[in-house]
Amino acid sequence: MSNSDQLNSSAIVGHFINGVDVADDHRTQPVFDPATGAVSRRVAMASTATVSRAIDAAQAAFPAWRNTPPAKRAGVMFRFKQLLEEHQDEIAAAITSEHGKVVDDAKGEFQRGVEVVDYACGIAELLKGEHSRNAGPGIDSWSEFQPLGVVAGITPFNFPAMVPMWMYPMAIACGNTFVLKPSEKDPTAPLLIARLFKQAGLPDGVFNVVNGDKEAVDELLRDKRIQALSFVGSTPIAEHIYTTGTANGKRVQALGGAKNHAVVMPDADLDNVVSALMGAAYGSCGERCMAISVAVCVGDETADAVVSGLKARLHLLKVGPGSDSGNDMGPLITQVHRDKVKGYVDYGVEEGAELVVDGRALVVEGCESGFFLGGCLFDRVTNNMKIYQEEIFGPVLCVVRAESEDQALQLINEHEYGNGACIFTRDGEAARYFSDNVQAGMVGINVPLPVPVAYHSFGGWKRSLFGDLYAYGPDAVRFYTRRKTITQRWPSGGVRESAQFSFPSGS
Q: 32, 39 in Cβ contact below 8 A?
């Protein structure tokens, strides 16, 4: 019986602690199949005691794992990567069944997570410190990077495989032990992956998964044994996590919300722009922190052409169950979230935006109870409207009209979020000016979703990130380690020295 069969035949999805599955029926809540609206299983909400048990396991495993040579840790990562690739279809199917995204999109998410594991395989090189011989007379000095201890991650529903893999592969490769609290809305993929990590040879207790809600999160924030915490989610929760975690002495990186803008210049290849916006706005039903939710068109002629092209393409958008790879877009993850997104569309109409394409009445044949919403397109949106100001996190694209590149930049730079932004143009000068002056952490030039590859780092500006360091890539080594600088001298020749009262220097 496969891992997924074991999960699917279980009444309750539990936790993975100290290398074994742990049942916990303290409280449960339903997990839905978003395509049908049916309850597919139930997931346990970890009690404070269960979270503490996971931290106990991680704390006990830390000394031995800390002292495991980085090359041996890398060996585990290499085997883990191989197992992940062998089980890609199984994990992608689990993502689709609980999140709803089209299976090809699920595989794409999964592969981007595996890329971080691949980067972690080079940990022996990444942890090399710096050495200076004869920094002073007969004195050598060097720095090294030491792990923190037990660290934790709290991750969102929209990328149940990829976002957790932004965190724990690098944390564990650096010598830490890890407690993951994934989203309770789609808990299966993280548990499947945890079992594969054990199969790759990871010692028990190094990686633990606890499902839960606020009770579990509060315990991770309170427990003094958690040295650092990484979070991805909405800005209000990110700010709470950062404020509470740092107040409790933890190192925290908390990635928050976004309102990603795409600036379309008059000289852009508009056919390619429309294709790019379709994928960036409506892929994964818009449930991406890097989704393009605002297209700022410079000039009315540009805006008219983009809106016309999008309108035509939206009528051809194939919406249905994610298990059918012929579909372009699946359902939203829950009925509550679907209704919230529909509410934003209602707000936009009330505020006076022009609803060019209305997806609220969409019904998918055979899936009438699924959480579907058709692609929605607004034109003539202004920056004082709620649909412009707030992150909608659904298949809704707002077109804003601007008179110049400077005006478009001003819109982006005045927004509270600064996650990602992109520009479509054939003009190198305009592109360079945009990339130099836009206040966003990730910038695309004719690239709508500028998500950095695994050997760079992911993060936004302004209220899209709380903390100083980005996720994965080189920043992950800095976040999950402490630098220690060591200076040593061995007296030689039997020379007896007098006391020195002046501050030591290298002269």
A: yes
